[in-house]
């Protein structure tokens, strides 16, 4: 594998730093290439601005259009272009972060905002002129997997747990971003209760992470429905006969066949 590992944690001696080191070592030991974007260590700028896309600050800044233009004319800033080149070289993307306010740390969100712009990551059409998305796109043929530590215990994140189910909390990243871009998204590697980890817990977590990483080529992806796979109508709404009566985020899983409520 050629892995791009994106890490968002400010402290290399953290649990996340430890797990990142263990995981990357395990991959390299098996002969895999690993390129790392350690966002804090790089001093990554997460803020979308005109300069990043070579846009004239005197002109009104329409973000998506300016990004697409800058990409086409080779005017992107070196940091954005550098990340895109890493993505292009990779066949596997690992996104590792602590869950902060039920989502990505801002530095990581800003990595997606700036790097995954129109013309590069979305707004693309296939050979027949069809819009690409959800199962096809610039990451087609690549695999992606999130590695997430969480303070809350596992049961808070169960189907009826107070924090909500992990599949739904990670839906914007896994479905709306990675799958939308065409990647096969593997089930996440989750470490709940991380704030109370003992060194033994951390060792067990590292073992689980190593196993999951080395199994990436053989792991079944999350079975999201493809945009152009026949389950959606021309407005990209689920056809009435697909999981009829089912609503909510789970309805976008092939495994959802229920006829009432959410999957
Ligand atoms: P660290 O703080 O570095 O370590 C966690 C524990 O592991 C420590 O006790 C440490 O001693 C121990 N440890 C054991 N072995 C090792 C080792 N080898 N190396 C390093 N440490 C080790 N949680 C939620 O569930 N939901 C939220 O929405 C949420 N929002 C948050 C928002 C913010 C802004 C913050 C700061 C935290 C939030 N949390 C939330 C908690 C957060 O997810 C956890 O604090 C985080 O996942 C723990 O990972 P870490 O790498 O920062 O751990």
From TrEMBL:
Any idea which UniProt keywords this protein has? Oxidoreductase
Which residue ranges does the record assign to the Flavodoxin-like fold domain?
1-212
- SUPFAM superfamilies in the record: Flavoproteins
Q: Which InterPro entries match?
A: Flavodoxin_fold, Flavoprotein-like_sf, NAD(P)H_dehydrogenase_qn
Superkingdom, taxonomy of origin: Bacteria
Looking up Pfam families in the UniProt record yields:
Flavodoxin_2
The entry sums up its family as follows: Belongs to the NAD(P)H dehydrogenase (quinone) family.
Its protein name is NAD(P)H-dependent oxidoreductase
Annotated source species:
Amycolatopsis dongchuanensis
